[in-house]
Structures are given as structure tokens and as C-alpha cells.
Amino acid sequence: MGHLPPAEKLPLAVRKNVRDEYEHNKADLEKQLSELLGETWTIDITPNAIWPYHNDGYAKESLGSCIKSYIEGAIYQFKYLTQRYGSADLAKEINAICHAHVLTLDVEETSPPRFSYGGCDVLDGKFRILFVEQCLGTNIDYACGEDNLFKALNVAPEPADRPMSFLTRLGIRTDYDPTIAETRHSIAELMGKSDDEVKLSPNFEESFAKLQAESKKKGNSVREDWEKNLGDFTKKYFEALAYHMKYIKVGEDDMIQEGFNEAVDKNEMAFRIVDKLSDKDASYNEAVIEDGILYLQCKPETWGVNIDYVAQKLMDLL
């Protein structure tokens, strides 16, 4: 679907509204956006190109107000989400993915439309607020809501030096990093060691590559939300290990603790995704010890399934 031709000249009342509501406020809106994201951002919107889509709605007489509302809606969502997910981290993500640091407004050209009324995406490093052709001015505040924004950031092209995907990085920061130290402390305490002596290796990038490859296979069984949950599920595998260590009394029985520490003499617990499990009787996951490292592992197609049982045969390994 192509663009409609831009209006050669807007009606006087519409031009006045564009001047008063959009053009007079543009610099302040750019300032708000730049201060929020910590980089210099500009707004690049051509009112004459937007007006032909008014469809006798809000934008027909109040085009400037309509454009301003879209920008304010995006700023509000950016502010809300940066506060919710960590202002510095999310702002850095937005700045890196939207590397042109330009906000614009355009019609959704994908057919069928990706959104009911409006949404957003990233094109050539520019952040685009989008409206469906017949819906200019409808549900403005939701165009850049969390679902739309995060999906746009996740599918946008990224610099080669940025690992994994936006959703995976976000999930690790919000669901793994804040509490994994508690899990490590629990495991270290059961081993009779200090936290600094014990290492948990999540191997996120290797797991991401395995799951990404599996998810592209026809008829695969990988969860649709695997990217967002990689951090959380990896933490749950380590939590399951701590549970089973406690269950077999690693922290209470000196003989069992000694046997565990001798077997896992590198003091390292790692998670990994493998093509094939070692135990022919294991259906979903297992724990194995190799070269003094305890590995919690599963196959790509069973990632996230029956996590709690990953170390159920731990005593047999000692």
C-alpha cells in the first residue's frame, strides 16, 4: 500500500492549528524527548503528508493538535516504561536501536495492517509512530504502548556488537540479574562456601542461539515467549538445583556435602542447552557433572518444561 499524495495546501484553519499546536510546541517536545532519553532527538513530521488521511475525523480540523497528541503519547509511554524497567538501561536500548534519534509519524503501509488502530516500528534507525489508514487520531495514547514498543524494538535491525535480542536482554535485566545473587548465596551456603567461591554460569548467548535456531524450524515446540523468558527460566533452573541440594541434605550432612564438593570441585554450576541428553531415561532435562562442573541441561524442544525436576537424580551423581 503506497502513500496518498500530500496536500498541496492546507485550509487556513488547519494551518493555524498546525502552527499553534504543533510547530510552536515542537522544540519543547524535542527537549522533553531528548532529556528523557539522554541523547539529542529531533522530530520530523510533515503535516501536509498526514492530513490526507483525516477521514473526516479529529485531524481534519485539528491536525496540529492530533500530531502533538501522538508525540505526547510516545513521550508518556517512554517515560512510564523507562521508570518501570530502569531509565538508564531502556533509554540506552532505545538510543542504540533507533540510532538516527528521529521521531516521526507515518501511515501503516503493511497489508494487512499489523495493528488495529496504530502502533510503531523502527525504519532506517528512525522511530516511527504509525496509524492505520482509516484510523488517524484513534487510540493515540496506545500507539507506543509496551506491547507495540517492545515488539518494534525487538524486530528492528541492531548493531552487530549487541548480543541476543532486545526482549532477551530486557528479561535478563528484570528477571535474572536482580535476584540471582540470592540463589547463588543459597547454593554456596549449602556447599559450606562463601558466595565469592561459587560461580553460576547462565550461558545466555549460547542458549539464545540454540533456541533461536530451534524456533525457526517448521513445527517446532519452542514457546512463543522464549526470548522474554530466557533470563527468568535460567534462574528457575538454578533455583531447582538449590531445592534438590537442600532436599538431599547437602547443607546438613557432612558426608553428602563432602561428596558434592569433591564431585563439583570447580565450584561452578552452569546451564546449557544440548542436542541430546546423556540419560536415555530422561525426557526433558537432567543434571550431569563434567570436569568438576555441574551442568543443568535440556534439549531445545524441552526448554522450560518440568524445570523443577532438572536435578532430581543429583544424589546418583555423587
Short descriptors:
four-stranded mixed sheet; alpha/beta; 318 residues; 12 helices
| Cα gyration radius (Å) | 26 Å
User: Averaging pLDDT over every residue, what do you get?
Assistant: 96
The shape is elongated
- Which structural category fits the helices and strands? alpha/beta
Helix and strand run: HEHHHHEEEHHHEHHHEEEH
The low-confidence runs, each spanning 5 or more residues with pLDDT under 50, are: none
- Biggest sheet, open or closed, and with what strands and sense? 4 strands, mixed
Tally the helices: what do you get?
12
Number of strands: 8
Distance between the termini: 64 Å
How would you sum up this structure in a few lines?
By secondary structure, this protein is an alpha/beta fold.
Describe this entry's structure for a reader.
- The chain is of the alpha/beta class and 318 residues long.
- Helices cover 47% and strands 13% of the residues.
- It contains twelve helices and eight strands.
- The strands form two sheets. The chain has a four-stranded mixed sheet. A four-stranded mixed sheet has the order 5-6-8-7.
- Strand 3 and strand 4 form a beta hairpin.
- Helix 4 crosses helix 5, helix 7 (166-176) runs parallel beside helix 10 (226-247) and helix 9 crosses helix 10 (226-247).
- The relative contact order is 0.09.
- The mean pLDDT is 96.
